Amino acid sequence: MFGSNESRGWIELGSLINNEEVRYSINVNRLMRHLAILAVTGGGKSNTVCVLAREIVQRLRGTVVIFDMHGEYSNIELGGQLVNVLRPAMNPVNMAFEELMELAKVPESAVRQERAIRQAWALVHEGYSEGRIKFTADHTLVDALIDTLEKLIEKGAVDEEGGRGALNRLMDVKEKYADILDHGVPLDLTKVVVPGRLNVFDLSGVDEEAADAIVSHYLRRILSERKKLKRREESGAGRLPPIIVVIEEAHILIPARDHKLTKYWASRVAREGRKFGVGLVIVSQRPRNVDPDVLSQTNNKIILRIVEPQDIRYVQEASEELSEDLAALLPSLNPGEAVVIGSMVKLPAIVKVDICKEKSRGGDIDVISEWEALAKGEARRAEEVERSLEELL
Q: Fewer beta carbons below 10 Å: N end or C end of the chain?
């Protein structure tokens, strides 16, 4: 009735809250119609993501990518080298112009700066395609853009004020983002996102602009690669298989109001991904701050504890299957308990999600223990200093 772990394409999420002996499963083929995991902080979102990723990778040998904003998933241990932890980096050769603009923080109103960088961009890529320009660790694409723009300014080929402003922004990119713009990153996507693995991009050490550029970069490339393969009906080794992409902190990267590159590509994946084997999972503790277009296109929902009435109403508006009765239960759910709805399940239910033992426990920091340890350490150091003084005297 609630799916079977022995059935092809079904994975276990947990058990019914009112009968722990009844296991509850979801259909991964239907999960490709996209999923939203929503809850307050501490509600059990990251544990739920871990359970899904573990089951998909271990049981089905599926491919999962998690864009990890807080470094929560880098320590998952699935065994057999099934976890591929990635630093936040992309090869500038594969970078889109819009991604460079995001890193350069060029505002929409700075038309002359944008035009100057675009001119340099076109010349550099023409030189690269013709073999006249080579990129190395010591002379990167950004270096080539700076050199080219300086020449354009000297020749009067670009507006000088716009060109100087653009030049300063490119120099900022070189200084601030040298680590994430790495020509050593493989151009072949399957050498970065490894098929049959849990691929975790640890974004905890980068700012929001860099996170937006990186997530949008790989969303764009994953969707594009899957489209090419589907149209050619190609498969086999060296090809990117169907993939499930998890975006943590969706209210930051896919906001309701602000412009983000990730929002554009997440919206594309939400509309087109199912046809090409790209499933989207968005995770957020602030549902009302997530773009309504993307949220409404997640056919499935795992909704853990939500207490804000505005958030509950917002989720209801985006979820035809979330009845008033189910919505009324959301504030009273305990951590790890969830209302599960959508096409990936046979029937909506309230589920106790399994504990993902492969992941170190998250949750609140025990500040008392840390303070006590600090106080003990200071006391020991004071005693050592006192003993040293006594020995000297």
A: C
